[in-house]
Amino acid sequence: MTEKRTIAVTVNGTKYEKEVPVRITLADFIRYELGLTGTHLGCEHGVCGACTILIDGHSARSCLMLAVQAHGHEILTVEGIAPSADQLHPLQEAFRDNHGLQCGFCTPGMLTTLLEFLRDNPDPTEREVRVAISGNLCRCTGYQGIVLAALDAAKRMKANPT
Question: What is d(CA 36, CA 155) in angstroms, rounded to the nearest whole number?
């Protein structure tokens, strides 16, 4: 018999109240219960960063959290970054324009990680960007496009603060 609990969370601005098994991870809840498949599962050990989301504005590995731990909190996934369906966030635009993605598997975790980082450090150096993303693994890009995209996004966000 699987024990269940009712949780209430806000994900990308939408409130949800759902009964969940107490041992379901936040990543699985986001993907399979809410249908938001942008949050990727890579290593399921918190090492690769593909499952990174923002919880109350702070990055977290959703594969290491249980959904019941998110009760009462606000979550932002990659699907909630853009301000609208027809407009990208400056960070997303910079990723597109600077070839910051190839296969796209690491991209959601990179974007959420960098969203928090650029909020807290709006004028980063290349070295600071590299340190910020050091917990996110990418097998395709060599990181250079990602670093350039982050630096470009910082300029765009300074020029047009939201």
Answer: 30
pLDDT in tens, 110-133: 999 999 999 999 999 999 999 999
Helices 90-97 and 144-159 cross at an angle (nearest 10°) of: 140
Residue 91, classed as helix, strand or coil, is helix
Contact 88, 59 (CB under 8 A): no
Q: What is the DSSP pairing of strand 74-76 with strand 4-11?
A: parallel
**Backbone φ/ψ region at 44: left (φ over 0), alpha (ψ -120 to 50), beta:** left
Give the global pTM.
0.95
Q: Which DSSP string corresponds to 50-87?
A: TTEEEETTEEEETTSSBGGGGTT-EEE-GGG-SSBTTB
* Residues forming beta bridges with residue 6, ordered by sequence position: 19
Cα distances from 49 to residues 7, 9, 69, 72, 99, in angstroms, run: 25, 22, 19, 23, 19
